[in-house]
Amino acid sequence: MSVTRTGGKLESIGETGAASLTVPRKDLHGFRDDRDGDGEVAVVGDAIFAGSMGGGLVSYADAIHNNRDKILSLPDDTILCPGHGPLTSVGEEKLHNPFFPDLQKN
């Protein structure tokens, strides 16, 4: 198994399609996986919840920016596994999360 690191941070593991991304929140790291090729699953911890924002040790502005740029930029069919509450998807959050009204399609 090969492990790719950039700046000391894990980026990918072998040919699994699994990778990590830095999510500066209480849990510090997210993890996404596309092993079966049927779409990605992102374990996002407390960064974002279904229909809400997570808690963390960053400012509100940084949290919004981080979630928009690192999580909601993933493909719409990416399943999000938050640290609390039900599973959701990037597409679902773009449509219904009140913290990102600019991403909602009319």
Please, how many domains?
A: 1
CATH class: Alpha Beta
| Percentage of β-strand residues | 25-35%
Helix content estimate: 10-25%
Instruction: Calculate the terminal CA-CA distance, rounded to whole Å.
Output: 45 Å
What is the radius of gyration? 14 Å
What is the count of DSSP helices, taking H or I runs of 4+ residues? 2
Can you tell me the CATH topology? Answer: Metallo-beta-lactamase, Chain A
Helix-strand sequence: EEEEEEEHEEH
Unreliable spans are 1-10, 25-29
Number of strands: 9
Average pLDDT reading: 74
Largest sheet: 5 strands, mixed
- What sort of overall outline do the alpha carbons produce when their principal axes are compared? globular
Sheet/helix structural class: alpha+beta
Overall description:
The protein has one domain (3-103): Metallo-beta-lactamase, Chain A (4-Layer Sandwich). The longest helix is centred in the middle third of the chain and has 12 residues, at 60-71. The protein is globular. Strands 3-4-5-8-9 form a five-stranded mixed β-sheet. Strands 1-2 form a two-stranded antiparallel ribbon. Strands 6-7 form a two-stranded antiparallel ribbon. It has two helices and nine strands. It is of the alpha+beta class and 106 residues long.
Topology:
Layout: E1 3-6, E2 9-13, E3 19-22, E4 29-33, E5 41-45, E6 48-49, E7 52-53, H1 60-71, E8 79-82, E9 88-89, H2 90-96
Parallel strand pairs: 5-8
Antiparallel strand pairs: 1-2, 3-4, 4-5, 6-7, 8-9
